[in-house]
Write a sequence for this structure.
């Protein structure tokens, strides 16, 4: 038996992103149903307990340091503090260049994250709600009955 969220990589990505955004299991369940991929609140709650990437405790920033975020934040701090003259001073080109490329990397990442949701929505739009693997009473699915999307 498998968890109904783990059984479908697309559903898993979207559900985990919603969890990371701090949405409640009830909200996610309702949203997924609207999207054509019904997942019960219980299944989401259970998935939360065994998901590979644990949620960071509330109010605690992930400790894994991200260079793109560090560069972007520090460059933004410096640039914000600059006068217009300093901003366009060629001596500061490096700061701007690094700040912008970090910003670009972060934007690209955001866009990529959105694409998992878009792919799911596109699938639902084209084919309508997809046949759902037979759900057992406890919300689990039986291995092998999950429907492959691609
Ligand atoms: Zn799971």
């Amino acid at each position: 038996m498998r968890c109904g969220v783990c059984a479908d990589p697309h559903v898993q990505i979207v559900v985990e992103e919603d969890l990371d955004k701090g949405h409640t299991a009830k909200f996610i369940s309702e949203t997924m149903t609207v999207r054509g991929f019904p997942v019960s609140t219980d299944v989401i709650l259970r998935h939360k307990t065994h998901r590979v990437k644990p949620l960071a405790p509330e109010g605690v920033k992930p400790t894994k340091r991200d260079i793109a975020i560090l560069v972007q934040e520090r460059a933004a701090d410096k640039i914000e503090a600059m006068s217009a003259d300093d901003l366009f001073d060629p001596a500061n080109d490096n700061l701007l260049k690094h700040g912008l490329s970090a910003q670009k990397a972060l934007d690209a990442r955001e866009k990529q994250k959105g694409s998992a949701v878009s792919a799911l929505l596109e699938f639902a739009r084209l084919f309508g709600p997809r046949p759902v693997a037979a759900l057992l009473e406890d919300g689990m699915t039986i291995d092998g009955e999950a429907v492959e999307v691609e």
Summary: The mean pLDDT is 79.
